[in-house]
């Protein structure tokens, strides 16, 4: 056997196992991205387009709510769970102009912070008689729809009974802040919400009307529902444990982007919705809890009084009543009471109830940032190896033109990561609202990945190395 025959028989272009695995990884990266786009739900919702507000539920186009009285009773079950029993009494105008049998539809949150609220609908009656209905579980809500067979027209009295069997969930205490100060009818500023940042509380956040209800034709069109009354009743022993309590709102001073406004509360005893506030009030007054309030209040954005009144019954039950007014006025309802889903929030020390899952809370928070992290990681791969190829290619370093791991990283992994980044960017942003704060991060990542990946490919073409050799003078 000659020396040549006894030496290494592999040519420079021979694909070693590491190179084969690298190329396979590059292909799988693109294929996996395409499969993920095809089978996974888009992590970015188009907006608060709740099905009940879409007009796509047959028979509901000409249904109008003219009055609402919702009462929720908080209790602690024998096994320690928080339970919220809700009765909604509504006056509903059914229109028979459509081609479908008129129906009534309502929708409530069923998942909060990645934790199920155990929402169950027990019954619905029209003029005192039970009627058939169906429920549909959506991503984070439950949709209720009557399934009437006979055509109804005109005004009718409805009563809906439903319950949240596990109403308390784990939440970060920093997410709820009592409003402070007054002014302008806005969502108010960022007073402290009790407790230190990062601590976990047991939260009951009841939303009887989803965000955007006052713009939906079934609720917001004239005439506005009158009365629109919401009542939360809490046993005395639980009311005394609440660290933060009030009507749902958002902390509008926390960010310039509405999508980053954290949950907050307008205290039940907010001065502008109690006696003596007068006209021109704005954000809620400081202090959260169960202080009593009487009389009528008025905000500068409404021409009718909205009141929040707290009373205590002989058995110690504390009742908070919100009488929401102003829907027919030019300014509309008070902004701070309708900027989020309308309802009430109670925060209790962690461990007050069975059921809250801090692990599910952290998983939900992680899931919210994973899409951006994945895109940033892919873009970083494309940038690092694309930039490396660009640098070596401009310098015409022989190593990047020679078959091997480095060349495969530049010409296989970097373009694959760039392509995956672009695919994910298009998929995630195709229905993304224009004001979403993640759009810029995703867009810049896709642009950087595309430029770096393309530059690495172009500048490491073998023709450039061959051209350099041809340009060298003969010796």
Brief descriptors of the model:
475 residues; Immunoglobulin-like; 10 helices; elongated; eight-stranded mixed sheet; 18 strands
CATH architecture designation of the largest domain: Sandwich
- Report strand %: 25-35%
The side-by-side strand order for the widest beta sheet comes to 7-6-10-2-1-13-17-16
CATH C-level label of the largest domain: Mainly Beta
Quaternary state of this entry equals single chain
* Largest sheet entry: 8 strands, mixed
Shape: elongated
Number of helices: 10
**Can you give the helix content as a percent range?**
25-40%
Q: What structural category arises from helix and sheet content?
A: alpha+beta
Q: Uncertain regions: pLDDT < 50 for 5+ in a row?
A: 177-197, 276-303
Number of strands: 18
CATH third-tier fold name of the largest domain: Immunoglobulin-like
Number of spatially distinct domains: 2
Per CATH, the superfamily of the largest domain is: tricorn interacting facor f3 domain
CA gyration radius, whole angstroms: 30 Å
Transmembrane segments: 20-40, 366-388, 409-430, 442-460
Biased composition (Gly residues): 279-298
Region (Disordered): 279-310
Biased composition (Low complexity): 299-310
Provide a concise account of the structure shown.
The protein is α+β, with helices and mostly antiparallel strands and 475 residues long.
Protein model, in words:
There is one protein chain. This protein is of the alpha+beta class and 475 residues long. The protein folds into two domains: 17-43 and 362-462; 64-173 and 200-274 and 304-356, Immunoglobulin-like, CATH 2.60.40. It has ten helices and 18 strands. An eight-stranded mixed β-sheet has the order 7-6-10-2-1-13-17-16. Strands 11-12-18-14-15 form a five-stranded antiparallel β-sheet. The protein is elongated.
């Amino acid at each position: 056997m000659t020396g040549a025959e006894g030496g290494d028989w592999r040519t420079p272009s021979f694909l070693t196992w590491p190179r084969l695995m690298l190329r396979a990884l590059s292909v799988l990266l693109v294929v996996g991205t395409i499969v993920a786009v095809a089978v996974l739900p888009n992590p970015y919702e188009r907006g608060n387009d709740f099905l009940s507000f879409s007009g796509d539920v047959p028979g509901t186009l000409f249904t109008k709510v003219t009055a609402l009285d919702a009462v929720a009773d908080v209790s602690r079950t024998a096994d320690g769970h928080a339970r919220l029993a809700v009765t909604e009494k509504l006056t509903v105008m059914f229109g028979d102009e459509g081609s479908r049998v008129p129906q009534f539809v309502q929708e409530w949150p069923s998942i909060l912070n990645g934790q199920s609220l155990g929402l169950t609908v027990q019954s619905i009656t029209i003029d005192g008689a039970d009627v058939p209905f169906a429920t549909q579980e959506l991503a984070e809500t439950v949709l209720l729809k009557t399934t009437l067979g006979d055509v109804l027209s005109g005004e009718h009295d409805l009563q809906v009974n439903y319950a949240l069997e596990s109403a308390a969930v784990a939440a970060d205490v920093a997410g709820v802040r009592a409003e402070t100060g007054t002014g302008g009818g806005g969502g108010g500023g960022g007073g402290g919400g009790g407790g230190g940042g990062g601590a976990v509380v047991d939260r009951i956040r009841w939303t009887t009307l989803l965000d955007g209800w006052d713009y939906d034709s079934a609720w917001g069109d004239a005439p506005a529902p009158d009365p629109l009354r919401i009542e939360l009743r809490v046993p005395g022993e639980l009311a005394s444990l609440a660290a933060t309590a009030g009507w749902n709102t958002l902390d509008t001073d926390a960010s310039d982007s509405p999508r980053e406004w954290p949950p907050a509360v307008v205290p039940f005893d907010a001065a502008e919705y109690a006696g003596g506030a007068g006209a021109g009030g704005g954000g809620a007054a400081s202090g959260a809890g169960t202080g009593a309030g009487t009389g009528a209040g008025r905000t500068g954005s409404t021409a009718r009084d909205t009141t929040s009144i707290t009373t205590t019954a002989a058995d110690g039950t504390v009742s908070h009543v919100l009488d929401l007014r102003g829907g027919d006025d030019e300014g509309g309802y008070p902004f701070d009471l309708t900027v989020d889903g309308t309802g009430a929030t109670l925060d209790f020390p962690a461990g007050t109830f069975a059921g809250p899952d801090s692990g599910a809370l952290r998983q939900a928070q992680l899931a919210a940032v994973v899409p951006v992290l994945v895109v940033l990681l892919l873009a970083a791969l494309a940038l690092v190896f694309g930039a490396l190829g660009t640098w070596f290619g401009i310098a015409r370093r022989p190593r990047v033109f020679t078959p091997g791991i480095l060349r495969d990283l530049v010409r296989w992994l970097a373009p694959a990561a760039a392509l995956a980044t672009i695919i994910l960017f298009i998929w995630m942003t195709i229905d993304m609202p224009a004001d979403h704060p993640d759009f810029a991060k995703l867009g810049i990542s896709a642009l950087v990945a595309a430029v770096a990946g393309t530059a690495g490919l172009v500048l490491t073409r073998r023709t450039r190395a061959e051209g350099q050799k041809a340009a060298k003078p003969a010796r």
